[in-house]
Structure formats: C-alpha cells, structure tokens
C-alpha cells in the first residue's frame, strides 16, 4: 500500500533518531567524536535507502 511503512522501517527510523540523540548528548558532554558522527551518517543513509526502497 503506498504511503505505508512496515515495522522494520519504523524501527530503523526510531533507531536513527535515537542514535542522533545519543551522539548529540555524547558530543555535548564529552566532546566531538568523528567516528560516532560517521556511524550516524551511515545509519541515516541506510535508513533513507530503506524508506526509498519501501515506496
């Protein structure tokens, strides 16, 4: 059905948003870590690819 998302897509989106919160909190508390941001960008791109392939 167009416009609907399945459970794995929603879970991946929630994981991506949660990851952003964690990486941002880490950066504020302890300073920036490039590998964490790189990992979050990769996760975001994978989520975006999953959303695009589901439609």
From TrEMBL:
Transmembrane residue ranges: 12-29, 35-53
Alphabetized UniProt keyword annotations: Membrane, Transmembrane, Transmembrane helix
Protein name in UniProt: Integral membrane protein
Organism, as annotated: Streptomyces actinomycinicus
